[in-house]
Structure formats: C-alpha cells, structure tokens
Amino acid sequence: MRISKYVCNYKFNNNTYLFNTLNKSILQIDSITEQKLTSNLTDLTTTDIETFRELEYLVDDKYNEKDSALKRLSIINKRNQKLQLTILVTNNCNCNCFYCYEKEMFSKGNIFNMFSELDEFLKNASTFYNEEINLSFHGGEPTLYPETMLTIYYIVKKYYNTVSSSVVTNGTLCSNFEVFSAFKIIKPKTVLITIDGLQETHDFRRPLKSGKSSFHKIIDGIIKLKDINIIPHVSIILDKNNLSELNQWYKLINDLSISSFYISRMVSGEKNALTSCLTLKEFSRIVDEFYIINKIPSRKDTIHSINNEFFTPMLCSAKSKKSIIIDPNGNIYNCISMTGKIKYSVGNISQNYVDMIPYLSECNTLIDEKCLECKYLPLCYGGCMLEKHTDKTNGGCLFHHFERKLPQAIKNYILLKNS
User: Fold this and answer.
1) Is-cis flag, bond preceding 197, omega within 30?
2) What pLDDT digit, counting tens, does each position of 345-401 carry?
3) Is the pLDDT confidence value at 304 over 50?
4) Which of 117, 119, 324, 365 is the most exposed place for a label (fewest CB within 10 A)?
C-alpha cells in the first residue's frame, strides 16, 4: 500500500489539504494523520485507510496508476456522446479590436458556403452520433451573415434530434432584425459577448471598423436578447490597461442582470505582439482578489469558471474525437487555436467523416513518456497541442503552470467554500 502519485500536499493557515489530480477531490487532514501518512501507513486507523482507499489517496503497491489515468481519459471521452461542432461562419468582422489574432489568419472575404459538403459530412457523422449535437457559431463575426447561420442550422437539424447551439459574437448586431429573427429560430443557449471595460476603454480596444463606438450597440443587443430569454455570457479580456476597471465592469454586468461571466487574460501571439499583457502570476492574483472582494463564492458557475481546469473533468477539444472545428473553407481542426493555419488542419468536410476519425484525436501522440510519469497527467493529459508545435522550449508542458497556480487555486477554492 502506498500514497498515490497523483496526490498533492498543501498547507494553508496551519491546515493540511490533500488534492487528488485524478478524481479532483480535496481532503483536509490533521497533523497526526499527516505524520502517519508520511512516516508509517500502518499506523493509520482502519477507518482512515478505508477512506483514503475509497478516495484513491492510497493504492496497492502493484496498482498501475498510469493505466488508471488513461482509462479515466477514455471514460471522459465516452461520457458525452454529443458531437461538438464549431463552424466559423466567416473570417469577416465589423469590429477592429486591436488585439485580434485572426486579422491575418485567413485570406480576406471568406464566407462559409460549402452547404452540400456539410450536409454529406454530417450525414456520415450522424451514423456515429445521431441524438444530440452542440453547435457553435464562430467567426470572424458570425452575425454578419444570419442567413448563413440559419442554413447551417437547418442542415444540422436534418440529422440530429436535439441541437444545443451557442454563438460567439462581438454583440454589436444582436439587435438587428435579421439577426434577432435568426436567434429566435436557432435559440442559442449561450451567446458569448466581450465587454472590455467601461465605455471609453471598451471603445478604444474594440471599436467598429468605422471607428465609431461599439459599446452601446452591445448593450442594446444584450437588452434585446433578454427579451427572448437569452441571457448572454459576458467576458472581459484583461491586461494592464483595463484591470483598474474590473470591479466597475462587474457592477455594469450586474446592472444588466448578467450572472454568467468569464475573465480572460490577454495573451501576446505571433500575430499580435502586445506589451501590456499580465503575467500568469499577476493575472491569477488579480482574479483571485476580485472573486473574494466581490464575494462571489457561493455561485458554482463562477467558482468553476476560475479553476475549472483543476476541479472539473474537462477535456480539451484537441483530445476529443467528438470535437470538430470547421473554418470558412471547410478545413477541419481539432483545436480552436490552430484554426486558419492550414498546416494544422486534419482534413476537409469534402472528405468522408469516417476517414477523418483517426485524425480527430491526436491524444495518444501527445502523451509522451515524461507526461505519463507526471503527477499532473490527469489534469492536462499531455499538455497543449498548439504549444507542442510552437513552443520549442517547453513543448506544451504545463508542469510549471500547475506548480505555480494549483496551490493558489486550492487555497481560493477553500476560502470560497468556507465564506
């Protein structure tokens, strides 16, 4: 009998907490039990041993934990039989966000129009997953072309009994009659909109291409959506230039009766070299303080939104056979961050879905021997696919990310639960 390799030990306020990366459980133990765990397991009481075994903190000496972790990955992959379909309706956009990473990604003027190919592709895919589908409209700005969105939606409805849709939009066109009418048909469960601060700050960062304000168009769209019971999910992309408005931003979305939100970190990339980005450590501290200052702990959605990579059985789309991302040219990807870079495409919807299956999950090639020995394997299952291709230093490894952020995430979670 031994302590699982997936158990992490943290101390806060003279208390010891154990966290199991495999099943995402947290256990508080006293100093006597901790001493028994570290010095002599046989001194543990029968009740303690049973508890530790049940929660997978203790395992048999010959127990193959790597196999257990990989089986857990397979279970997560099989648990949700829904096909996750994301379609980039267009790469065109009516906004001119200064940090946009898509500006140079595609050739100009592309609008998805491969409807017959999509029909045949989904016809084949539906023989594997034919009950439910999650359909996400992405861009560019998808609401520029509501008729295209509707055509895609009707094709999907031919083959799937239940369609749960979402839209990622800048929100400036949501009050337009054609867009509003399309939304009434599509009935998106989630509409994701970014408001980057108060009006002046937001309009500087996310103006319309005409140079005019986008702020009030977004607010008008949110109010219009609420009239048909669509409550948007609002995000802010945080950097050094707008972090001072974070609490005022939270008041703004509260005044709009929006409870679902997300705080994202500005990241500098190869197409948008930015100097105002927060480090991951700075960002984590700011967000942690924000949640505690604003006393948001009791709401489960917000607890998980900051730490869901640690506490929920998430599976990156790049590691799921059921996740398909299609760009305006019909090219298929399994990672949204790779979309538009043809060298990362795994095929095209003009091909048969069956032929695509082996390429829709590179999970096994991602998990190398070093990863298999890591205590954080159940949290990332091999690291970031994009960074494996682009980061020659770390190769997508998230070890140092977890070493730095997980202790604070555990502490935060405990503070939130106890407050």
Assistant:
1) no
2) 888 999 877 777 666 655 545 577 788 889 998 888 777 777 776 666 776 788 888
3) no
4) 365
- Residue 399 CA to residue 412 CA, distance in Å, equals 20
Report the alpha-carbon distance of residue 221 to residue 194 in Å, rounded.
Answer: 12
Q: How far is the C-alpha of 79 from the C-alpha of 73, rounded, in Å?
A: 10
Distance (Å, whole) CA 264 – CA 101? 15
Question: How do beta strands 83-88 and 323-326 pair?
Answer: parallel
Contact assessment for residue 231 and residue 116, using Cβ atoms and an 8 Å cutoff: no
Condensed to tens digits (0 to 9), the pLDDT of residues 51-80 reads 999 999 999 999 999 888 888 877 776 666
pLDDT of residue 331: 92
Contact (CB, 8 A) for 311 and 304: yes
The larger pLDDT score, comparing residue 200 to residue 403, is at 200
Strand partners, 409: none
Kindly report the average pLDDT of the chain as a whole number. Answer: 84
Half-sphere exposure of 15 (CA within 13 A, CB side): 12
Non-local CB neighbours of 85 within 8 Å, separated by 6+ positions: 122, 133, 134, 135, 136, 156, 324, 326
CB-neighbour burial class of residue 168 (10 A; exposed 0-12, middle 13-18, buried 19+): buried
Measured CA to CA in angstroms, residue 70 lies from 107, 248, 321, 326, 370 at distances of 40, 44, 15, 28, 14
